Amino acid sequence: MTDDATAAGVVHLSFDGYAIQAEKGASLLQAWIASGLPLTENAGCMGQGVCGACRVLLRRPGERLPGTALACETPAEEGMQVSFVDHFPARRPHAYDLHGVTDSWAVLDEVDRTFPEAKNCRHCSGCDRACPKGIEVQRMVNLASVGQTFAAAELFDACVLCNLCVAACPEHIDPAHLGQFVRRISASMTLRPSDLIMRLREIEEGLQPIDPDAPGANPKVPT
Amino acid sequence: MTAGIPLAQALANWRACAPAEPRPCGLPVAELLRGFHPDQRPGAMVPLLVGISAGQRAPAELAALLQADSLVDDIDLAGAPLLEADVLVIGGGGAGCVAALTAARAGARVLLVTKLRIGDSNTVMAEGGIQAAVGEDDSLQRHFEDTLRAGHFLADKSLVAALVSDGPAAIRWLIQEGMSFDLADEGRRMGGTLLRKKPGGASAARLLSYRDFTGLELMRALREAVLLQPGITLLDRHPALELLSDDRGRCAGAALHDLARGRTVLARAGATVLATGGSGRLHLLGFPTSNHYGATADGLVLAYRLGAPLREVDSFQFHPTGMAWPGHLEGQLVSESARSSGAMLVNGLGQRFVEELQPRDVVAAAILREIAEGRGILRDGRAGVFLDTPTLERGKPGILAGSLVTLSHLAHRAGIDPASEPFLIRPTLHYQNGGLVIDPAGRTPVPGLLAAGEVTGGLHGSNRMMGNALLELVAFGRRAGEAAILDARVERPRNVGLTHLADWRRALTVQGLPLSRKAPMIFPPYGNFNAATDRGKAA
Known about the structure:
Oligomer: heterodimer
Largest interface: A-B, 70 and 81 residues
Low-confidence stretches of chain B: none
Number of helices of chain A: 9
């Protein structure tokens, strides 16, 4: 037990139906494994908060509705009710071919074609409430569906691939994947760094040879 | 308890001295590493007794797994469902996704299997960036020499040449897949220049990034690409238990475990690409780790049993700046981008003690030296040194909120304000420098078995430079994907089974090693799922 936890004691909570205890300060994910329960899914980066694997539904005492969170970055609290949210395959794949979109005038047409539900957003904010990263998901959807591609892409900067907004959307808009679509198309269609282009050209022209016998490529011989 | 300077005293010393003057470490590099790098600790490494690399040294924890018996027997294969593919890719991180995409686009039927979920990997956690020599003041040769020098000239030159030559094309490929990069001037998307930082040990600014979550940005683009790519069948929650062999010793696919149903599944393939990543979750020498939950050395274990040789498996990277306090964040990474942006390391006396942008092994050893010699800082019984973010913020106002987003997020969870209080940090187990022997096409010496990413060795010598891991997974993921489809077209495995295990068990017995020890580990012990005994149950 860590010193900080010894001082602060333990908390009691319910996790996937198990009544467990946790050291105060421990994350929900740490509380789960410290209780001897098997962890074979819903785990990834173990606390960095970047992989979106450890999604949970979470209700604190006194709250009527549960919210969503990532178990690795949410401290366990007294009286919490928690359950993992399973991962599920998207039922309606929103399929597009990124390399097939070659005309930037047609990006909005591609949004309409691939994500036809985006125009039907009913502004329920379910996606906003579901996002553990506080992204304005609904605004991203609305911007993407009126051709404001860069602005939409910027809003989705902090996405960690948890797909909770996909589960939350009653219109099956698939916001997480729409967000990635606008991000990907923004980069692939407009990012053209000149230093990279020039270096690629030099390499193709054979102007960047590698000499394995150069002095710097070998350990210094003691003199 | 380690000796050290109590927090309050250390903070007073730090305030009195800030900004601290540069101070060299005072010990020659070789002596510093010999005295304080964890790899060099007496008893840390043991020689391997069985297998093709017998005689090589490996950490005791890894050697135990490498010299264990298989989790499966012929009887487990009988009646197991059989899947067929041209190319089987094991591992759903960066290298696996790149290899799968490359093979599928060349026309292969690809089976991509992963222990957890596509994208769950060390790739997604990479913060700092990716190296590629694009600057006018830079060249492929410089990248080549820097990588060799940082690795103490133990790397394979042909692999390093392949790596650095692929660098600029790898960045173009990533942009084509929809990954963004930071620009020197964000207003100039077309015709501007990439933002370049100087990684530790480099002779030029070569580190390209996307904020301080480069790996996440890379993985987001790749995950979407894989999910949308025709020709790739994805199986989440299917760890590999054993590689299959044919009667000529060729790799023929793998026996997988379907975790959801608690049953074995066979995948037969013309070529198999191992992209299973590293081994931080073995917690070598009791160190905390910055690694992903799945990093348990499974690929090394499987390939070694089938006869694939290893190299530099006695060399691990301890990232200098892991969290030392608070306890629930122990081992979590504080990105090197803090130091490459100018943050200093300060001991309990308020002094700097090493040039912060030296290669990682040097900086880590220097920190461990400060702690061992009593100049560390103690907080709640945990020892570390300061990463001086407040001085960084004073020098470059706004940098914490603007470009060190992940770092600020981490500080929030630690309950500190990084603009007024420094982080307490200590080295954390970060990367497996060595691994499977491969050629520049990504082939191991075992026919039909290829490998890419952290599971391979030879690119980093005994110390990896920041930014070369992300480049490696793109460069060698593509190389392995291309070679795999060629191999799958040449020859198909026949009489597929576990023929290699008879010889392996005989070798273990001859050396007096127990057959009761099973591997791969699949999940760390604190995951409460023992692959040897709990496998029949759905989990």
